[in-house]
Amino acid sequence: MTVAREFIAALEAFAGLAPPPRVKALHLPAVGPDQGNRGAFCGVELADGSLGLSYALLDDTLAALAASRLAASLPGADPLAVARLYGGGDGVGRTVGLAAINALTRCCFDRAGYLPAASRDSLGELMPAPGDHVGMIGFFAPLVPRLVAAGTRLTVVELKAELAGQGAGYRVTLDRNELATCNKVLATSTVLLNDTLEAMLAACPAAGWFTLVGPGAGCLPDPLFARGVTLLGGNWAVDGRGLIDALECGAPWSGFARKVSIGRAGYPGWTALLERLR
Question: From residue 94, how far is each of 7, 82, 243, 261 by CA, in Å?
Answer without folding.
Answer: 13, 10, 22, 23
